[in-house]
Amino acid sequence: MKRFSRKISLVLFLALVVFPLTFTIVSAQEDITICFGFQDLETEFWVAGHRAITDTLREQGVEVLEYNANEDPNRQLEQIRECIAQGVDGIIIIPQDGDSAVTIINEAQAADIPIAVFNRPPNDLSRGITVVADNVSATEQAVEFIAQKALRQYEITGEPITPLILVGALQDTNAIGRRDGFYNVINRYNERYPGLFNTPIEVATEWDAATALANLEAAITANPNVDFIFTSSDFLFPTIRSVLEPRGMWQPMGTPGHVLLAGLDGDATACMLIDEGYVDGTGVQNLFLEAQLTLDRILQAVAAGETQPNEVLLDPGFALTAGNIHFQRSDMWGCVLYDEGFLNQ
Amino acid sequence: MSILDDRLSSAHALSQRQATKPRSGPPIRRAIQDFLLSDYFVLYLTLFFFITAAIFFPSLRNPGNIANQLQNMWPLLAVAIGQTFVLILGGIDLSVGATMGITSVVGAIVMAQTLDPSFFDRSPLWGTLMRPEGGVLAGSEWAVPVGVVVMLVTGTLIGFLNGYAITRFNLAPFMVTLVTSTFFAAFALWLTQSRNISGLPEAFLNLGKGDILSIYLGPKLTSDIARRDILSFITYPFVISVGLAFISQFLLSRTVFGRQMFSIGTNRRASEISGVPGKSVITRVYMFSGFCAAVASIMYSGRIGFGQPSLGGGNLLLDVIGAAVIGGTSLFGGKGSVRGTFFGVAFFVLLSNILNAMQLSPFVIDAVKGVIILLAALIDITRTRLINREQRV
Q1: pTM value?
Q2: Number of domains, chain A
Q3: How confident is the model over B332-380, as pLDDT tens digits?
Q4: Complex confidence, ipTM
Q5: C-alpha count within 13 angstroms, C-beta hemisphere, residue B309
Q6: Could you say which of B65, B195, B360 has the minimum Cβ distance to residue A171?
Q7: Does A65 touch chain B (CB under 8 A)?
């Protein structure tokens, strides 16, 4: 009993006294406090985005309250309410989906706190600051590049090309934009060159690598003649590799059996795979630009006392391909991270 | 039944006598024992935790923050009450999250006032139960009451499926509820093609966030009071959850059904030999758990503003089981109370609030929560051991 009481006392002491004291001492007292609510950082894009936002804010002397909602919109709503109760000056969120973003923006604006949404836009763009990549345009640029390669292949072999798309979670407007961009190019080429593409195969991923793996395995088993794969996010390239490699379909460009591959995001893995010749191209979101736009606008709103700024700031994006990687490498955030040794950390 | 009732009452009275028996030993030891064995142990801990943390983090005692944390408690309390009942039986319900997801979806399908064809035209229900004009009862004054009833019935039916499978086929509860969880989570995604269903009636949204009584603390210096200065005090979720808690506590402590649950949780075989209808009680408890999950789903869906197929995913199950266990409900069955779960939920919500206020890395917070649940389970084992030792003395 005595031993047990001592243990409990020690744990309570640590939990109640030491931790709070430590954190109170080390926490700086800055003038501006920004609440940053995000979801699990499961991909390189979100890791890099989180780092870009928090590091830049702290470098500017801004106190940052970080909240991870673990992909739960209700939890994120609770966290943002907590931020509001603490009287933060501004809020930046990466929402789980476009619907919950609307609810959270309304909550913040009702409390007269400026809010910015980073990269995952709300369904209603009329409220809040939204910084977002033009997913349709970036996807079209990447898919266009490999569609041209597919056309050349078709002209040589006369065999129609079977495309496959890994679709993201469709409650996310980014996923919808990327699917739309993919179909825009496929439909355009099919109108111009009838018979070039077979009906695309859609593979649902829900932005989850395990779901993507299971569904892609099934799709490739049923359709082993897939010639062209577009993934709605670069973080799925390792998943694609694990499905294609055992089937002898993971080949570099210029090798027989090479499956045309493109993605979107522009992460470090995509950069490496373009370097190695396995991936043909990727649509790049200019992450650093998006982070800077978000921070500049929210801090400007805080400084000006704007409580309900409403604006959409667009990142046009671009395609990084095996053709232009040598002179556009430094523009792609994933290549910057890759060259810094990000994948070796 | 009356003989059985007498036996159960005698057992209950005996345990009450044991619990209130004066303890032996030096005064400090007795005080520590009283503290550890008290029904209010978690409440004391919560208050101690709050007061200590509030010294270091003044934002915690901000009235707005306290009002917020209370609002966060109500939906979690509803689903944790159902889980408490199941744990008392010695079972576990891993399907509460998926039940919340599917009930959220079916309710929205009934109530939605408009549906975007570009989102839902691939849904298997498109053109029948889901149309561009909205859900089944779009625009009808009956949409909300019927939608709510459909949600409650769906949750209860899923609970029935769980209970039936567990009792009829003698399957392990964790296996059955894991299967139903996987099935209904996937089913909800399939029905909606993983889209949220927005455009729900205002009356339904009020069930998740509507104020009945709001308060303003402070001087009235201007004619307008900012919305953020008005604090929610009595809300619809408060009324729903507290009402559910009172009914549940009554069921647990004042009815034969409640005593039968404790009896099965302590020793199912002995209970059934004594005449307790084990299968029926277990099935009804799982139905109640499904019902509670549906109640929570109503509050969560109303608060977030849409029917969400992935509602109840993520770490919610950790919060639900954690709150019940911290509240003194035994994972081995036969012990627990709604009052304890209420304290457990309060502790859990406060814990999240404090961890956030401490600005711990968000990645560390869930790990810390896990450790706290483990500690709670260890404390529970120690308390049980102490009680047993007391009873032997």
Answers
A1: 0.80
A2: 2
A3: 889 899 999 999 999 989 988 888 888 777 778 878 878 877 887 787 7
A4: 0.82
A5: 23
A6: B195
A7: yes
